[in-house]
Amino acid sequence: MISGPELVGEPHEGPPPETLVSGGGPSSRRELLRERLEGWRRLPLLWALGGALVASALWAGGLYAWGDAAPEQHGYELTRSTCKKVQPRAMAARLGRMEAGTGWSNLIEDPVLSRADCGFQIASGAKSESLPGQGYMVRFSVEQHRKADPSPEFEATLKLDHGGLEGNSGADFAEKLNRVPGLGEKAYFFTISYGAETLTLAVQHGGVVLQLEATVNRSDGGAREVDTALLKPLMEADMRAAMAALTK
Question: Which residues form the domain of 171?
Fold first, then answer.
């Protein structure tokens, strides 16, 4: 018996209902497929852009972390006994004696920046033409920068702190800096004047900035110029001893 022609496929075969749009036909289906293909073609570009953005964020984050690294402290430690460790013994041995009861000390501690200030007075051991009743006021200070590196601003800070005083314009201050090799990362001798001549030795060693100052204190009211040839080797010796004592 010959049956009627068989239907090919199931009744539901044909364009999926979602491909049909109002008033559409095969052309509408082709347009929808084309849009889908174009969407897939754009995906690699979006992935590439996303990867570039992620890489850029990581790179920027890495730079920020690197630039924000804490400066090396080289083992320095500031305590209440700091001023006992940094006494200018070389200067006192050559220039006279340290006067008891005339010193002072101060320590301010902070997680970001700590500072110690110490004061000493050296009295002349004997009067002579070279040391006519002459004494010295000595100040030692040390700053410990734990978060920000003081190196880029070291010279500028010296100029602002000392060069803006009367008789020491900022333009002339750079000429007053005499480099001291082999002491910390940067070290300078310079003289300043605020009523009395002062010789200063400033050192930057990692995140630590140290300064040793000697000011002439003459009882006869005469000229107060510091003898740099006499003081420089003594101050350098005391600075080296202080740096060693604070890193033990």
Answer: 82-246
